[in-house]
Structures are given as structure tokens and as C-alpha cells.
Amino acid sequence: MALSLGTLFPVVLFCGALAFQLAHQARSSAEDRLLWGARTTSAALDRMFEASIHALQALAQSERLDVPEPDEFFREAFRMEEAQPTWIAVTLQEPDGQVLLDAHRGSPERAPSPDDRESLLAVLRTERPAVGDLVRGPGTSPAFQVRVPVRRQGIVRYVLSALISAEAVARLEGTGARALSPWTWMVVDGRGVVVERTRDPDAFVGRPAGSSFLKALRAAQEGVFRSSALQGIPSYVGFCRSGLSNWSVAVMVEQALLDAPARNMSLGVAVLGLLALAIAGLGAFLLSGRLSSRIVAAAAAAEDLAAGHRPELPPSSVDEMDRLAGALARSADLLAERERERDQSLSRAEAARAEAERQSRAKDEFLAMLGHELRNPLSPIRSATELLRRRGGEARELAVIERQVQQLVHLVDDLLEVGRITRGRIALRLEPVPLAQAVAGALETTGPMLEARRHQVEVDVPLDLVVRADPLRLAQVVDNLLSNAARYTPPGGHLAVRAYAKGEQAVLEVADDGQGIAADLLPRVFDPFVQGPRSSDRTEGGLGLGLTLVRRLVELHGGTVAAKSPGPGQGSTFTVALPRAEGAPLQRPAPLPHRAGPSRRILVVDDNADSAELMAEVFRQAGHEVAFAHDGLSALRTVEGFAPEIALLDVGLPGMDGYELARRITQRMGEGAPSYVSVTGYGQPSDRDRSRAAGFVRHVVKPADPEALLALVDEVTLERDAAQA
Fold it and tell me: Which fold has domain 170-258?
């Protein structure tokens, strides 16, 4: 059924699209006929206007207009009027509107002709013929004026007009055919008043046309639009404006008559489509019976093949099913052969794995023995160095020996750690450990290397982010990551240590802008003895075991570690994810004893919400009045009503940094501005110089010791009081 439907659907879709296109063409053709009818009627109307204009222009050339007593012209005008069956009267006017001649058909003594002032002004303004709007005088039927200018000596001396009955419009060519047509013709003058209408003329002639029709006339010279002009019945209206006047012709037809061919065509296509689908469905149902039994038999044969038996399918009248039976039989033979090969491969693989395990154990034992033997000479070397220093030995040579001994100790430690971890001899002592504590310890350990290479370190580690880990091993992980980043970053580089909570895990990132890692090296960067490109003098040092230790220690903690890098020369980022401590209480500072001295107003601004709140809590428990904010704008609003004496600002705020915030607070508070202390993860000498230049009295590197912060506040307070005194 699906095959039949899928096959027929494009055909039905094509037929539907074709029917839609044919219906659209039929509608367009009908609309074109509407517009053609309006154009032909407009052309006939223009021919009627042209005939009257030519007759008036011929009369205007008469020399009898130039004599003092133009009686002969009056008689000529009467003769011209009698020769035009549609004319009611002929009038001659001066430019000021005074009537010199008003000749009615048959008698010059009838009531004066109704005047159309607008068309008179149009002739005087343009000096060209004009057709007026529908007028009705006393005792006269509806009529309209056709006027021409009479020029003498290059100026308009008179205006000659013919008053034409509106019935002349009804007698245009083709009137009889229009009366029998389902279409309705309508003629309107320049003001939009109906002059003639083939359907219900008595109800419409002399009245304004519909608003939708007038709106369409104002928008275009001709066109077709939808309306309800036929007694509220939805209709199509084609219109065309006269080329010689402001009159317009409209042709209207009911929408149902115009849309009927398209509707009938769409209905026919739908019926044929449903019939075709029904026939296809019946054929598919009959043919499926022939195939279904063979498909069931093929499924049973496939199940036999899966169970390890050779499938058997009897011959059938369907060629494709016979080929399927042959393929199943060949598959059974091939599977049997593959099973034999698999058993042989498994045997070889098992032997290779046993050999690899033996070699791995031998390697681990060798590393352990090597580390042990190397430690024996290191101890006396270190002792001898200390004795030489006490006896006044050369400081430079001693420093060289000490650095090299320390490097060798570090290499031996890595070797021994890898051996112990590989043999499973590491016992972790798990407890809740703040990540900030581990980072602080690692920064202290790697500080000499960072300072020697002039690296700038940014630290953003929440104080309350706690993991379940062995404190010593966690510090070792962070230390190795920092050492690796410092070693492979050129002097003067930037390092960043960030941490954040992600679900049930705590994530620690160590990023640098150093040498980066090539794409082919990334999958192997945590393998033992794998290192990136080294300089010829090997100033980076190391055996390529630091990252191996990191991975194995993190995995022992139930975590994961990953490395990523955009490529060589673009830095790298190492990400460690560890389980957060379950049920561990929030690590807040212990209540501090009441401090001597007055309470101070302290403002704490840090975009790390936990850090700001914990720092504020430390000062509150010490008896100070504290306000805190997480960005520059919030801090500026807080200053308005708080007036702090001391402001501890994180210089790495989003949007507005701490330096800009300090400048704006000083602008607002003037001489009452607070003393500023920068609390930041940037700790290089250049960072301290910048803080000092921005007016900060102290520079504190995160994570800061609470007791040290309290002491710093007391110190800054004493300095502030002394300066104000």
C-alpha cells in the first residue's frame, strides 16, 4: 500500500498543480475578458465624445461668429444640433460664463440648459476640449456637456458646448449584447456618479458609485478587483478610465460564475485522484498475498541462520525470493568460516594480551627500582650542599646544585608515582576539600617557576566549591597542571585557573596561551613519556610523566580529565571534573571574636556571588557594617545610600572593571570617597603597579586569607584616620 501511494502521490500532486494552473489561467482569462469589455466600452465612449468634439470644432471655425450680429451662426448652430441625434442643446459662452447662445432642439425659447461650471473652467485652464459630469436641469433628463474652446487671435474668445443626453451612453455599440450577458456594464462620470448601468439602471443612475470602485479608480488607470457591487454578491469588477475624459467604464460579474471552471476542474481532479488511489490500493492488496507467504518463509530462514542452522527455502515463482534463498545459504557458509577465523584470532589475542601484561609488569618494576636507586645518591648530595652553605661556600654554585637536585628529585618522584599508581599501591584518604585550598597550595609551590618566567596568573575559584578528594593528591594534580602550563608557555605569558559547579561535579580548568597541542598529539597527551616538540636545549625539562600522573590520580578519585587546544601556538586548556562532596556543609569562615575599635562601613564588589557573600560575612562577624554588589552599576547604586569608608573591588568585573568603578565612585563622593583595595587573581608586578596608579592602597591576590583581610582593613583604617587627622 505504501509503495502504491508513494508512486501515485507525485502523479496526483502533478495533476493537482496542473489543475490549479489551468484554473488560474481560466480565472486570468476571464479577468482579461472583463478588462477587455471595459476597454472596448471605454473606446466606444471615447468615439462618441470624439464625434461631438469634432462637430463642435467644425462649428467653432465658422466665420459667422466674427460678425457683430451673428444671427447666421445661431441658425448654423440649430442645424448642427438637429444633425446630432444625441444633442439636446448647443450653447455659446464667454470666458466669464455669460451665455450668448442657448439653442435647444426644435425651439430656442426653452428653459436654459443646465450649466457645468467645472468643465467650463477646465476648458479655459487647459484650452483643450473637455467632457463634463452628469447634470440635470429643470424639466430635463440627465445630460452632460462636451465643450471646445473657440480661439480668435490666439486666445480663447468663447466656449462652445453641446448638451448631450445620458441616454446616448446607453445606445453605445453592443448594447443589445450586453443586455443578454450575465455581466453588468456601468459608466461613471468624473465625480464617480453613475451615468449608465445595464442592470437596475433606475436604482443607480444619478447616484455615486460604490466606495470600493472609487478607491480602485483613484489607485490605477485600469484593472480588476473583487467587490460586492452586485447587490452584496461577491463579484469581480474590471474597470478602465476614458482616454478623453475623467469618465470610467466598469464591467462586473458574479464571482461564482468566474470561479466555476476552476472549481469544477479541481473537483474532477480530486475524484480522479481518489479513484486512482483506490485502484492502486486494490492492486497492492491482491499482489501482496503472493509475496507475503514468501516473506514469512524468508524471515523463518533468517531466524534459523541466526540460531546457527543452515536455512532452507523451497523454490518459488518469485525470482527475487529465490535469489534471497541463495544469499542466505551462502551467508550460512560464510558465517561458519568466520567463526573458525574468530576462534583462531581470539586465541592469538589472548596470548598477545598475556605477553603485554608481562611486559607492563616488568616495566613498572624497572621504574620502581630505578626511582629507588636514584634516591640513594640524592640524599647525601642535598646534605653536602647544606654543609657547604654553612661553611660559606660560593652562593652561585650552591644555587645551581640545589636547583638541579630539586629537578632530579621531581623527576624521580614522577617515576615513583607512576610505578605506585600502576601497581595499585596508592591509598586515597578522601575528605571534603575546598578547591580554593588546593589551588592556593599549588600556586605557592609553583610560585618560583611562575615568577622566574614572568607569567601572569588569573585565578577565579569559588571559596565554597568543595570536592571529595585526598588533599595531598588533589594538590599534586593542580601542581602538575600549573607546572605543565608554565613550562610550555613562553616567558611573560598568561595562565588562568577557573572553577565552577556543574551538576553533581566540580570542574577545574587550567588554561594558557602557550605552545598549544597539535591535533595528532591530543589523543596521546596523557600517555607516559609523551611530550610536545622540545627546544634543542630542553629548557622545558621533564620526562613526560606529569600529565600521566594527573590522569591516573583523577581517575582514582572517580573523575575525568581532558585536554583541548585550537592548535600549535594557540594555547591549551586542561579540564578536570571531580565529584562534589555530598552533604558537605558550606565552608564559611568561623565566627571571629569581637574586634576592638570602631565599626567601619565596607563595600565588597565581586562578580562571583559566593565569594562576595562569604567575604562580606567575614567582615560582618568582625563587627563591621558591610554592603556587597556583583557588578559596577549595582555598586554605584549601593554607594548612593551607603557611603563606604573602605571598598574591596574585584578589578576583573564584567562590563565596567574595578579601575573604572573606583574612578566613578570618586567622582560621586568627592573627598568622602573610600580607600580602595584591589582583590584580584592577577598578581604580577605590573598588575600591582597598575592598581597603585589607579589609586588603590593595597593589592591582594586571590584566594585571600580571611585573617589577613581583617588585618589589612585595620591597617588601611589606621592610615585613613591618620591622613584625615
Answer: Beta-Lactamase (3.30.450)
